[in-house]
Design brief:
single chain; alpha/beta; six-stranded parallel beta sheet; 19 helices
Length: 474
């Protein structure tokens, strides 16, 4: 399939990026970052006719031999490792920056000083797709809400792509087929930063709390990146904001978009959480949805479901399909995922809880005594709120990884702290200490990269350990 550009709205003058993408023959493109997003962007560019693609990455050249072979099969791609080469980037007609690569350093200064046109991976995918986008961003709950929205929409429109920061790279949607009904796309702050033309039909903000401070330094910069998604929406397109999140709601007052918010107050317009029910009010009509599905566990998942209902209905998905999607929802892997039980103790994998607020919400989802496994690569946030949520809930905290001492210092005020060091050690100690009816919860509040490839790898290690011992003796 040969991808084609999305037409710009009537009356909108093409920018330089659009001009370059519309005529890639004879042009070179540099792609910075060779993760899943960068690799997918390279394939899209090759299929769209780029005459040369230069792939730039920090990994050592020797470690990229496999990538060179794979990418060469896609088209005229050369791979350069050992650091991002600013000279090579500025020689390209266009630069595409992968979301995981911070825009700073000598290579970025070279691009800015040379005036080289650049764009982001999500923006590239937007320009080469035609279907409406339903986008989800926020600090926590993005993946669960994206999965929910995708499931609700697919009940009525099965030809719907679900991906982005979750699962399939969004550039893939542009080259696997041309006739999607919708694209449901999770967007990280890194993907929102470079947006310049992406105009989501519906954009959801799940919540805001400090995160990725190792990249943004201050929370305001992180929040501002998220809101770039909403600033580029047309006025008739719908913003779905968490009205119960003070930071998100206060910042949303600048928006001029149509609105259908969730987690609203009693009898307000939008989606209200009423016990285990969701009540949507708009234009004088009221709709009720039930959330008896046991996979929708905890207040935070009710908020995710309310956001998904608002997004799906704003996109025109029928009420019956929305309810069917809620009933069919299954827990997202690595997000409060119940793995199984050992000797009457249930084990939950919340490896995607990579910040303090996510772990707070996980702790609040349980009435049972908790044996918490936490730690990893510190992201610069205070662990005080986690300790507050743990008080009276957490029976013991098993700390691992680089942030073990920081977490231990906060948690020792509310529960015993065991410096376990590694996942295996933490699990073994928790297994010996936990009693029937209690819970062992992995919710790290940290990034994974000190001991694991990513949060999925961390969660898989946890799950494999548990499954290997299910049904065995203590």
């Amino acid at each position: 399939m040969n991808p084609t550009l999305r037409p710009l709205p009537t009356g909108t003058a093409p920018d330089r990026v659009q001009e370059l993408l519309g005529s890639l023959k004879g042009r070179s493109v540099a792609v910075v970052g060779l993760g899943k997003s960068g690799t997918s962007a390279i394939k899209l560019l090759c299929l769209a006719g780029a005459s040369k693609v230069v792939a730039l990455d920090d990994k050592a050249q020797a470690d990229l031999a496999g990538a060179q072979k794979t990418l060469s099969e896609m088209g005229p791609v050369t791979v350069h490792g050992g650091g991002i080469n600013g000279d090579l980037a500025t020689k390209a007609d266009l630069v595409v920056v992968s979301p995981g690569v911070p825009r700073r350093g000598a290579w970025w200064d070279a691009i800015v000083n040379a005036g080289t046109p650049w764009t982001g991976e999500a923006e590239l995918a937007w320009r080469f797709t035609r279907a409406p986008w339903l986008c989800i961003t926020g600090t926590n709950g993005k993946s669960t809400t994206t999965t929910m929205v995708g499931g609700l929409v697919q009940q009525a429109k099965p030809n719907t792509f679900v991906g982005g920061n979750l699962g399939r790279a969004v550039c893939e949607a542009a080259y696997v087929q041309a006739d999607w009904d919708f694209l449901v796309v999770e967007l990280s702050s890194y993907q929102c930063e470079p947006i310049s033309s992406l105009d989501a039909q519906v954009a959801v903000l799940t919540n805001l709390s400090p995160d990725h401070l190792e990249r943004y330094k201050v929370a305001d910069a992180y929040y501002d990146a998220k809101f770039n998604l909403f600033r580029h929406q047309s006025a008739q397109h719908v913003a779905v904001i968490n009205a119960g999140d003070p930071e998100a709601y206060a910042r949303s007052k600048e928006l001029k978009n149509a609105r259908l918010d969730f987690n609203v107050g009693a009898n307000a317009q939008g989606v209200e959480i009423f016990g285990r029910d969701l009540v949507l009010r708009r234009n004088g009509a009221t709709e009720k949805y039930t959330t008896g599905n046991p996979a929708i566990r905890g207040r935070h998942n009710l908020e995710n479901a309310a956001a998904a209902v608002a997004a799906a209905r704003a996109a025109g998905i029928p009420q019956a399909a929305v309810q069917a999607g809620l009933d069919a929802f299954q827990a997202v892997p690595h997000r409060l995922q119940e793995i199984g039980a050992i000797n009457g103790v249930r084990y939950f994998n919340d490896s995607k809880g990579t910040n303090v607020d996510a772990t707070v919400k996980a702790l609040q989802s349980f009435d049972e005594p908790i044996h918490l496994i936490a730690g990893g690569l510190d992201k610069g946030s205070s662990y005080g709120p986690m300790a507050d949520a743990a008080k009276g809930r957490v029976k013991a905290c098993y700390v691992i990884g680089q942030a073990a001492a920081l977490i231990g210092a906060a948690m020792q005020k509310v529960c015993p702290v065991i410096d376990a060091g590694t996942m295996d050690s933490a699990l073994e100690r928790a297994r010996k200490a936990a009693r029937p009816g209690e819970v062992v919860l992995l919710s790290p509040a940290c990034a994974s990269f000190d001991q694991f490839r990513n949060y999925e790898h961390r969660g898989d290690v946890f799950a494999e350990w548990v499954r290997a011992r299910m049904g065995g003796e203590s």
